[in-house]
Amino acid sequence: MEKYRDDQRELHCVFVDLEKVYDRVPREELWYCMRKSGVAEKYVRVVQDMYERSWTVVRCAVGQTEEFKVEVGLHQGSALSPFLFAIVMDLLSEEVRQESPWTMMFADDIVICSESREQVEENLERWRFALERRGMKVSCSKTEYMCVNEREGSGTVRLQGEEVKKVQEFKYLGSTVQSNGECGKEVKKRVQAGWNGWRKVSGVLCDRKISARIKGKVYKTVVRPAMLYGLETPSLRKRQESELEVAELKMLRSIDKSLFQNDIPTTALTFSFNHIID
After folding, report:
1. Which stretches make up the Reverse transcriptase domain (predicted)?
2. Which residues, including other chains, have CB under 8 Å from residue 227's CB and lie 6 or more apart?
3. What number of other Cβ atoms are within 10 A of residue 124's Cβ?
């Protein structure tokens, strides 16, 4: 996105949402995909035994319904279900999936990218057809479209005659993607996440009886990962780097009130705590 922004070229992205995805996986499709992926037959039979004679009830405030049989979908809450779903999606999308970065997929989080609106609309329809003929369903109301470096009159994307919602930002895999290619909003959210983490462990970090080394380990484990999550890849501007640095220095000075002294240089403070943390 940054490259397209710098080159003043448009990049069209559609974030595809699948409706009730775990509940719609056909069982026969699951067995087929497992065998097609090279899963040993004995393991296929083990999974089939797990799913055979599946019954459930609906519980509400006035009681629960009679038992009824479940013949479609993956088990909710099972540690195996995400792996089985990944196998199914890998096979179902094989005929329409393009190489990264034009198609990016993590479980059911799908992004389709193209340099033209017409092409991304065509690719979206191909994905819809490939998924729905195998039992899945694309939710048009939750699928969203974003254009990076948009020129005037770029238009919208339609799916089966229905207009896909156009957005200026989208949260994908925990990180906010902006249509202008910037990451300012994500940096602000990371700073806020860092402060939230700091408040959770402030009782430890501000306790004078606890050694600086233990405080450093707690800070490195809880606060810093929350602040830096997802910021390894985007190109930060000096202003955004400064926001992160200022937030961290405030946290570190809050750990030890004596560090509020004006005669302690910022570089010395940072070096001192980095030595403790690392």
Report:
1. 1-177
2. 190, 191, 193, 194, 197, 244, 247, 248
3. 26
